[in-house]
TrEMBL record:
Any GO BP: fatty acid biosynthetic process
Domain Ketosynthase family 3 (KS3): residue ranges: 1-461
Record has Phosphoprotein as a keyword: yes
Protein name: Polyketide synthase
Organism in which the protein naturally occurs: Sphaerisporangium rufum
Cross-referenced InterPro entries: Ac_transferase_dom_sf, ACP-like_sf, Acyl_transferase_dom, Acyl_Trfase/lysoPLipase, Ketoacyl_synth_C, Ketoacyl_synth_N, KR_dom, Malonyl_transacylase_ACP-bd
Sequence ranges assigned to domain PKS/mFAS DH in this UniProt record: 1442-1727
Catalytic residues (positions): H1477, D1646
Lineage: Bacteria, Bacillati, Actinomycetota, Actinomycetes, Streptosporangiales
Region (N-terminal hotdog fold): 1442-1568
A molecular function (GO) term: fatty acid synthase activity
Top-rank taxon, per record: Bacteria
Keyword terms: Phosphopantetheine, Phosphoprotein, Transferase
Cross-referenced Pfam families: Acyl_transf_1, ketoacyl-synt, Ketoacyl-synt_C, KR, PKS_DH_N, PS-DH
Length: 1929
């Protein structure tokens, strides 16, 4: 066959204007994806994250052509023709012309025009034709809009005028229909237009094979050339179809990527769309050579096939292999000779697996020994260009064979399992490679299309081999998966502006343009001090990271080092100083060299020099040590290239060798030799032993060690200690640690390194060291042997020999090395040391991780170094990179859809739908007619009928949803939730006992509840519910924060000055404000030592401000105490103001500070400045629930003076202190006990409690009365040594109603009262002062300006007393409102505040907190005690950044360390696992995800990272998500004790009124306890039950993501022993959501629940609660398989309780569940068909229900057709297995013949065989069993067979309605049981009343025979199983 030559090529694809650009993009890994531009398809209209949402798509990323413009004038195309024709025509024409020019036929000159043909691949022309057709649909729009407006009452004139205008607007984007429109909209005329333009006569037409179209065009053209029809052919494809029809259509097939697009990858999840055009020129090879045309490649063969009956939208292996076979038969060589496959590669899970499998099978069938060929797909770069995709792949492959280079597989991150299998025949390259020597230069290209079409084309290149061009080698090494974006500025404000500009620009760029942008930004750096850097992987990621830095700057931060090492912010005030950390054994995982080796030739040299193994055990010491030092040397090379040098280094153990090489003491060669020798010595000469990591200080570890032969081997951190010793000693040490509550982990090491057990290795290594030459230590190293700096002349052989047995002093070394350093860099594989260093020093540590397959590690180091001031040679990061110019702010141009020229309108109104007119109700389920309210019974009937899909008349009032309608309890609960909402019944009151209720009974219950709710005026709570009520103590810290960026510039304005006391700042500040462009306002400047009289002017100023216009500023400046409380109240009463409170020293510099603070205030700000100008903001931070240490300030000899009377809060608190300390109480009050019964009763109660108490009368506002009363009290009780000041007065009033007298009345008891008391006692003797203030002083409150100010002063006064008297514990307790007692109750404001979200403190909570604070010696001087304070924004809470977790998406209520309530919207599109948790048409939120959600929110609330112990988990009612909609849940977590969190989940479906799930989470750190339930003993084969095919889909409803059961070792009624898969990750959530999990693999954990289904196989088991879970957390993640054992603890009706232990491969329990409570729903009746092994559990449970006998039953299947099935030995062997399964241990077959046998210590065992089943029953007392197949017999035969029992068979048949054959088989089986048990054949048998469904219980004397008729899967006939036992009927 003549070969076909490719002589010309042209293309236009995203980011590629030519084949050369396309090829270089492939080498360099440029990906053209970007956010779909709105001019093409507006995302607001068409994008929705939910895949199920109608008429939308869920992937907003695409590859689109940018910057293309057709040269209409150059091609001489008329304007009207151009506009009326789809753009695909012009793009194809343009590319055809360029391809002809490339082939040597410019403008078709020289072409044999009569014999030149054109074949174009295309589908549906293009999107612009489809859009333009909308013009012709105007009549539809006119009629629809006209009809709607007529219904609104529009008259004809108004309507006609409106429609005329609308028509003009509607049609304006679309070209008029003219003579060119029809031809311009046809697909075939694309080819015809090319023929027309270039005057070609060989024929032109279009082929449509969907996504195979363009490759089909090539094969069609080739055939025309072979057949001699043409001499030259143009072939190719064009596709411009990124419009709703195609993209929404692909979305509904699930083909679009739900996350990042990946190809041939374990996480392949779909494609992103692309577009473009490619054209090639083809000639017969001999003609091309004769014409001296350049030949890119020759087409050697092709194959086409269809999948036949395969899928219409998915490929089939068989169909694809047929196309391959045909292609290589035509080519004349085998597929095994091909080195490159350019695949179809759509990135769908099914498509990738099918394609890779077919290719692999075809190669293996051709040659089982063939090596691995490269596989790649251009779709990873330009997306799926559909009809133009195949030609793009062919052009890329042609360039590959032309250049003789194998390109990388762009988009493949974690290669597919087919590629990583040991027998794999394909590989995905991470970097381009030269074509293998000696291999033919051949490539195969594939395209597949809807309809089942497969096309494969084979290319070949003959002739001499080419050298790989240097540019190609350079580009191949430039591939990066991440970019570093840099910025600098002269000030924080300038930097913020630059970052905001970038954040606004990056969403418009493509992935490839991120590299261009990075290069641009690097070139624009100006060496300015304020710096930022972000490491990004996509435009969306860049936007997120840049926004993070902008937010940080806005919050006043000037230094950011993000936890993920992706965003950096810093101020480089000098050259940054770097320290290196070199890792030791235990770091890293491979020898590939990762991304650094591929990126830098200098790094690759290191790995080539090292000659490391490519396979085997990478952890083995002899391999690990050379591997790790190689990584460190490679890292040094990479860092040296970018100019990052260090001043000091620390090497962890082995890493000290790397440090010595860095310091010049060793050459690279010597380092490799020493590492190899060290590893060899340790392997060969070390005694056995092991090591453990301990979460404790060295002192604690030493105490635990005691006399054990265990030593500390490493000081890795303050609480990270490593021990080493013999295995048994380490185990004993671990037991001691566990008992002491210390967490420890045995390390996976081969020896006890750094201990005496490796002394022989040290000696052997020493001999090697003696022969090595060492140079001086030329750089500073802090040794981990000595913890000190090494001297230049250190005896290195001695040091390194000692190092092997000496402990690693990493902590000590890092402490020394980190001094004066700005950054630490871990140089080598892994990230261990950077993590450890973080616990030792505050200096940031970044890991380079030379093993990483991502370049991000190097970029992180470069970014961190840059912002720190290290002189980094960033230009090296771009050496050899393929970057194109890109200016920030560049405007991009794309193809524009005319449809998107419509006006952009945002409509936020509420849709009000008119009620439908009443219509005759159909006789099916439907709502009540208008005007007649639907009764509760009708509502329930309708909802039940809809869910059961039954006509309404079939559902009556007495129908029982569970028993008669066969709805599950989940569905019935959902129906009731719907009904309660419609009827206005609180969800918390909804009936939940559904077991036997009829619809009528449910209706009556709902009616009663609705009446109660109506009477109570029930309303849905407005406050967001938490998991538990709380009140907590908060410290008021002064956090150093940068000033936020100035708000938008304003004009200068007028300012009014109020300056009582004549502060020197007043006038300068007044002038500065008027000229500071901060608008207008009022400023109050208070003097130092502010007195009460100075507040009058502040009050006057506030009154003026309250009436000012919106935006007016109110500023208070004070130097100590002042009017802050007044200003905060003003802000709450007059929120239209902008309020600033500034506390500054009285210095001239304060003016600028105040003006800057004012300029930055958007609504409210309060800041404190010190003499140095440091800005601090008061921040409330939760104190621990319990005091870390307790030290009572008072004792029995102390006297506590109490003001405020002997009643209320003060009295309760005073009594508590007295009881805790033994102090006497001196109570001061105005009332006379004789006339105040409450006071008298309280005083008696105090005395009765054993407290010495004395009462004296005085008004605290009168100094003389106080002195006299104190004298009286001291004479009675002794000197006063403590004061509890609770006196106060509160008369609320708005600011405008207050005056100086109101302030005086309020100040008198609070301020004067405390001063009077302090004056009356000896202040120097005080040991405790507690003043009762109010949070109002901290935050302000409506109507409380005077009270707020007084409390603010009280806190200041209390603090002063403490400062004057160091021996006095002075605490101002600022209380929120109390419930039941106190001023809040007296003023009747508690309920109102609660409705606003301010939670009151109960007396019990308050007293408990007060006691805790008094006893805490470290208590701060001012403490706020409160519950929630929602709506008060005048206080700042400590709110660290929330972790990126799925269920922490939207915080509603947040108090860090106390409470977090979040909301998450869930749908099948966001939470992908829901589709795999579908029960009875309901998407159920799985319990395992409920626990994960609670754990995530608890972790975010507390900052805890470890997995908690989960206790008292309850799944009270299901959370249901509609399949086509979404449901919101709220997850609440409340800290109820230190380390303990209460959590709950509520759902929108019940109005968030009730808990659906709840649990308690404890952060104990304790591992899972070992012990029972134990694994089944060895000796029994695995249960013949395949969960994948025999349980999932039938017994189990869970879908694919939850398919984790692998095999059962025991599957009994009360015992489970099974293997489950634990996987490292899964696509649980949509790609745009965070995917991290705290409890690790939920699929495995769900299997622990549904795996118990084998115990109750006739029902569906749903979890309702768990007593306790010790979770493995992430430690079990990705471990492969785990073994779980479950034992039933108890059963109560349909509720089952299980205990579970999960073990790793070593038999260690890694997770334990105690008290898993499962509820049976959807029970079946046992008729089958059954999988045989599940029958045993069902028989056992039903037997107990029917007879009361607990027997053990097992059923074992066998093949009755097997030749030896009936042999005695085979029967005995089967009987032994069945008996072993019944009793849970192996049973001796020799002692178990057929029939009835005694099993020692167990009971009587009966065995029967038949119908392919072996049935074994083990029970106490008389036992028997039988199996009988139901076979057809005549009446006469039955009479003979049954003898005296024939009548019984007739009776059974009449009673049950079953046929005579079935009844006869029952009686036969019963008779066989009796015979086996020794009863005579003639013994009478009678039928009892017991039995149900397919069961009949027969009686014979004192025994019962229970018979079941059922069916087996894959067996045609029914079978009877009969079991004889003693017991009741």
């Amino acid at each position: 066959m003549s070969r076909i030559a490719i002589v010309g090529m042209a293309c236009r694809y995203p980011d590629a204007a030519s084949p050369r650009e396309l090829w270089e993009n492939a080498l360099a890994g440029r990906r053209a994806f970007r956010r779909l531009p709105d001019v093409r398809m507006r995302l607001d209209d068409y994008w929705n994250a939910d895949p199920a949402h109608p008429d939308t798509f869920y992937a907003r990323t695409a590859a689109v052509i940018e910057g293309y413009e057709f040269d209409r004038l150059g091609y001489r195309i008329a304007g009207s023709t151009y506009r009326s024709t789809d753009l695909t025509h012009w793009l194809a024409l343009d590319m055809a012309g360029l391809a002809l020019a490339d082939a040597g036929f410019p403008k078709a000159e020289g072409l044999p025009r009569e014999r030149t043909g054109v074949v174009v691949g295309n589908t549906l022309t293009g999107e612009f034709t489809r859009a333009n057709v909308m013009r012709l649909r105007w009549p539809y729009v006119r009629r629809t809009v006209g009809a709607a407006l007529k219904e609104q009452g529009w008259d004809d004139d108004r309507l006609a005028t409106f429609l005329a205008g609308l028509e003009e607007t509607y049609k304006s984007p679309f070209p008029s229909i003219d003579e060119d429109t029809l031809a311009g909209g046809l697909s075939n005329t694309i080819a015809g237009r090319i023929c027309n333009h270039f005057d070609l006569n060989g024929g032109g037409y279009t082929v449509d094979g969907a996504c195979s179209s363009s490759l089909l065009s090539v094969t069609t053209a080739c055939k025309a050339l072979i057949d001699g029809d043409v001499d030259v052919a143009l072939a190719g494809g064009v596709d411009l179809s990124i419009d709703p029809f195609e993209i929404v259509g692909f979305a509904k097939t699930g083909a679009l990527a739900k996350g990042e697009m990946r190809l041939y990858d374990r996480r392949s999840n779909g494609f992103w769309p692309g577009e473009g055009c490619g054209m090639i020129v083809l000639m017969r090879e001999e003609d091309a050579v004769a014409g001296r045309h350049r030949v890119y490649a020759t087409i050697a063969g092709w194959g086409i096939s269809s999948d036949g009956k395969g899928g219409i939208t998915r490929p089939e292996v068989s169909g694809y292999k047929l196309a391959l076979r045909r292609a290589y038969e035509r080519a004349g060589f085998g597929i095994e000779t091909v080195e490159l496959f350019e695949g179809h590669g759509t990135g769908t899970a099914v498509g990738d697996a099918t394609e890779l499998t077919a290719l692999s099978q075809a190669r293996a069938e051709a040659d089982p020994t063939v090596g691995r060929a490269a596989v790649t797909s251009i779709k990873g770069m330009i997306g799926h260009a559909k009809a133009a995709a195949g030609i793009a792949g062919l052009i890329k492959a042609a360039m590959a064979v032309h250049e003789q280079v194998l390109p990388p597989a762009i988009g493949c991150v974690e290669p597919h399992d087919v590629l990583t299998d040991e027998s794999a025949k394909l590989r995905a390259l991470r970097k381009a490679e030269p074509w293998p020597d000696g291999a033919p230069v051949r490539a195969g290209i594939t395209a597949m299309g809807f309809g089942g079409i497969n096309t494969h084309v084979v290319l070949e290149k003959t002739g001499p081999r080419r050298r790989v061009p240097s540019r190609t080698r350079m580009l191949a090494g430039a591939l990066q998966d991440a970019e570093l974006l840099l910025a600098d500025a002269g000030s924080p404000e300038e930097l913020r502006g630059r970052l905001a500009e970038l954040a606004g620009f990056v969403p418009a760029v493509s992935y490839a343009q991120l590299a261009d942008l990075a290069a641009t930004l690097r070139g624009e750096l100006r060496d300015l001090p304020w710096r930022a850097a972000v490491v990004v992987t996509s435009p969306e990621d860049a936007e997120k990271q840049l926004a993070k830095l902008v937010e940080a700057l806005d919050a006043g931060s000037t230094r950011v080092l993000a936890a993920d090492g992706r965003a950096f912010l810093g101020h480089a005030d000098g050259p940054g100083r770097v320290g290196f950390l070199f890792p030791g054994q235990g770091s890293g995982r491979g020898t590939s060299g990762g991304a650094l080796r591929r990126r830098f030739a200098e790094v690759e040299e290191i790995y080539l020099q090292a000659g490391l193994p490519t396979g085997g055990d990478m952890v083995a010491t002899a391999v690990a040590q050379p591997r790790i030092v190689t990584g460190s040397m490679a890292g040094l090379r990479a860092l040296s290239l970018i100019g990052v040098e260090a001043e000091v280094a620390v090497g962890h153990s082995l890493g000290e060798l790397s440090a010595l090489q860095w310091a010049g003491a060793l050459t690279e060669e010597a380092l490799l030799r020493l590492a190899a020798a060290r590893g060899e010595a340790m392997t060969r000469h070390s005694a056995s032993g092991t090591m453990a990591g301990v979460r404790a200080t060295p002192d604690t570890v030493t105490e635990l060690t005691g006399d054990l032969p265990v030593v500390i081997a490493g000081y890795n951190g303050p609480e990270q200690t490593v021990v080493a010793g013999p295995v048994d000693a380490i185990e004993e040490f671990g037991a001691r640690a566990t008992a002491a509550g210390v967490k420890w982990t045995r390390l996976a090491v081969s020896h006890a390194f750094h201990s005496p057990l490796v002394a022989p290795a040290a000696e052997a290594f020493g001999e090697h060291l003696a022969g090595e030459e060492f140079g001086p230590v030329g750089r500073q190293i802090v040794s981990t042997v000595t913890g000190e700096v090494l001297q230049p002349d250190t005896d290195l052989p001695a040091l390194l020999g000692r190092q092997i047995t000496a402990p690693v002093q990493f902590t000590q070394a890092v402490e020394v090395a980190a001094k004066d350093m700005d950054l630490l860099v871990e140089v080598g594989p892994g990230r261990v040391l950077s993590t450890l260093a973080a616990s030792v020093t505050d200096v940031p540590a970044i890991a380079l991780d030379t093993d990483d397959e991502s370049i991000a590690g190097l970029l992180r180091v470069a970014g961190a170094a840059y912002v720190t001031g290290v002189p980094v040679a960033h230009e090296e990061l771009f050496h050899g990179r393929l970057v194109r110019p890109l200016a920030v702010g560049t405007e991009f141009s794309f193809f524009q859809s005319p449809v998107e020229q419509a006006p952009t309108v945002t409509i936020e109104g509420v849709v009000v739908r008119p009620e439908a007119p009443a219509a005759e109700a159909p006789a099916t389920a439907g709502p009540a007619t208008a005007g007649a309210p639907e009764s509760s019974i009708d509502l329930l009937r309708r909802l039940a009928a809809e869910r059961a899909e039954l006509p309404l008349e079939m559902v009556g009032a007495d129908s029982r949803p569970l028993d008669e309608l066969h709805l599950s309890s989940v569905t019935v609960m959902h129906i009731i939730d719907q009904a309660t909402q419609k009827l206005g019944v609180p969800a918390s009151h909804a009936p939940t006992n559904l077991a036997t209720a009829s619809l009528r009974e449910l209706s009556e219950a709902l009616d009663a509840l609705a009446a109660d709710a109506s009477a109570a005026g029930n309303a849905a709570p407005a406050v967001v519910a938490g998991a538990a009520p709380w009140a907590r103590a908060f410290a008021v810290d002064a956090d150093v924060l940068r000033l936020p960026a100035r708000t938008s510039p304003q004009e200068n304005g007028r300012w009014r000055l109020y300056a009582p006391g004549g502060s020197p700042l007043a006038e300068p500040l007044h002038q500065a404000l008027e000229s500071g462009k901060v608008g207008s306002g009022i400023v109050v400047v208070l003097p130092a030592g502010c007195a009460e009289e100075h507040l009058a002017q502040a009050l006057e100023a506030a009154k003026v401000a309250a009436g000012a216009e919106a935006g007016t500023r109110f500023v208070v400046v004070q130097h100590d105490r002042g009017a802050a409380g007044l200003a905060k109240t003003l802000q709450l009463e007059a929120p239209h103001l902008r309020t600033t409170i500034v506390h500054v020293p009285a210095t001239p510099a304060a003016v600028d500070l105040v003006v800057a603070e004012v300029a930055a205030t958007t609504r409210f700000a309060e800041a404190f400045y010190d003499e140095a100008g440091t800005r601090r903001v008061p921040t409330m931070r939760a104190l621990p629930v319990g005091a870390p240490r307790i030290e009572q300030p008072l004792g029995s000899g102390d006297v506590l003076l109490v003001t405020g009377g002997g009643k209320g809060i003060t009295a309760e608190c005073a009594l508590a202190v007295a009881q805790d300390t033994g102090a006497a109480l001196a109570v001061l009050g105005r009332s006379d006990p004789a006339g105040d019964p409450e006071l008298a009763a309280n005083l008696r109660r105090m005395a009765d409690a054993g407290v010495t108490v004395h009462y004296a009368r005085a008004d605290v506002t009168v100094a003389g009365q106080v002195r006299a009363a104190v004298a009286e009290l001291e004479s009675a009780l002794g000197p006063v040594t403590a004061v509890l000041h609770g006196a106060g007065r509160n008369e609320p009033g708005g600011i405008t109603t207050l005056d100086a007298a109101a302030f005086r009345r309020t100040f008198a008891p609070k301020i004067d009262g405390l001063r009077n008391v302090l004056a009356a006692v000896d202040e120097s003797r005080l040991r405790l002062l507690v003043s009762f203030g109010s949070i109002i002083g901290r935050a302000g409150l409506h109507g409380e300006a005077h009270y707020a100010t007084a409390n603010d002063w009280l806190a200041d006064l209390t603090r002063e007393v403490g400062e004057r008297n160091p021996g006095c514990r002075a605490i101002c307790m600022e209380w929120s409102v109390w419930s039941d007692v106190g001023m809040g109750e007296r003023l009747s404001v508690v309920d109102g505040l609660a409705r606003k979200g301010i939670s009151p403190i109960s007396p019990e909570q308050g007293v408990r907190i007060m006691r805790r604070l008094v006893a805490d010696p470290d208590v701060p001087p001012v403490v706020v005690i409160s519950g929630r304070t929602e709506g008060i924004d005048t206080v700042r809470y400590d709110l660290p950044e929330l972790p990126l977790l799925r269920f922490v998406d939207k915080p509603l209520v947040r108090y860090h360390g106390v409470e977090l309530v979040t909301e998450a919207e869930m749908s099948a599109g966001t939470d992908l696992y829901l589709a795999d948790h579908l029960l009875d048409g309901n998407l159920l939120f799985p319990a395992v995800f409920g626990m994960e959600a609670m754990a995530q929110v608890a972790a975010a609330a507390t900052g805890h990272q470890a997995a908690p112990v989960i206790e008292d988990a309850e799944f009270l009612r299901p959370i249901i998500i509609p399949p086509e909609g979404s449901t919101a849940i709220r997850i609440a977590a409340t800290v109820v004790d230190d380390g303990t969190v209460a959590a709950a989940i509520r759902s929108a479906e019940t109005g968030y009124e009730v808990d659906h799930f709840r649990a308690t989470l404890r952060y104990t750190g304790e591992p899972a306890p070992q012990g029972a339930p134990d694994q089944a003993g060895d000796g029994l084969p695995a249960v013949p039950l395949d969960p994948r095919t025999e349980m999932y889909g039938d017994v189990l409803f869970q879908g694919g993501r939850f398919h984790r059961l692998r095999r059962y070792h025991r599957a009994a009624a009360r015992h489970v022993d099974a293997d489950v898969a634990a996987e490292a990750s899964g696509d649980w959530f949509a790609g745009f959501l965070p995917g991290g999990l705290l409890l690790a693999d939920p699929g495995m954990r769900d299997a622990l629940m549904h795996g118990n289904q084998v115990c109750v196989p006739d029902a569906t088991l749903l979890p309702t609660g768990i007593e306790r879970i010790h979770s493995a957390g992430t430690t079990a993640e990705g471990t492969g398989e785990l073994r779980y054992c479950a034992t039933e603890r108890s059963r109560d009706g349909d509720t089952y309780l299980y205990d579970i232990a999960v073990r790793d491969a070593g038999g260690q329990v890694v997770e334990r569940w105690s008290g898993l409570r499962l509820q049976a729903v959807r029970k079946k009746d046992g008729r089958g068909p059954w999988v045989a092994p599940l029958l045993g559990s069902y028989l056992e449970r039903t037997l107990e229900d029917l007879t009361g006998v607990r027997a053990a039953v097992a059923v074992e299947p066998y093949d009755p057709a097997a030749g030896d099935a009936g042999a005695p030995d085979a029967r005995r062997a089967r009987a032994a297995v069945a008996a072993g399964r019944a009793v849970g241990r192996p049973v001796d077959a020799a002692g178990l013949p057929d029939g009835v046998n005694e099993l020692a210590g167990t009971g009587t065992a009966a065995v029967a065989h038949g119908a392919g089943l072996t049935l074994c029953v083990v029970a106490p007392g008389t036992t028997g069993c039988a199996v009988a197949a139901v076979t057809a017999r005549t009446e006469e035969q039955w009479g003979q067979e049954l003898g005296p029992h024939a009548a019984l068979a007739g009776e059974i048949s009449a009673r049950t309605g079953e046929g005579p054959d079935t009844a006869g088989a029952r009686v036969l089986a019963a008779a066989a049981c009796l015979a086996g048990a020794g009863s005579p054949d003639t013994a009478p048998i009678t039928a009892t009343e017991a039995g149900r469904g397919p069961w009949v219980v027969l009686a014979a004397g004192g025994v019962r025979v229970s018979t079941l008729v059922t069916t087996l899967r894959d067996a045609p006939e029914p079978v009877v199983l009969a079991i004889l036992t003693e017991g009741r009927s």
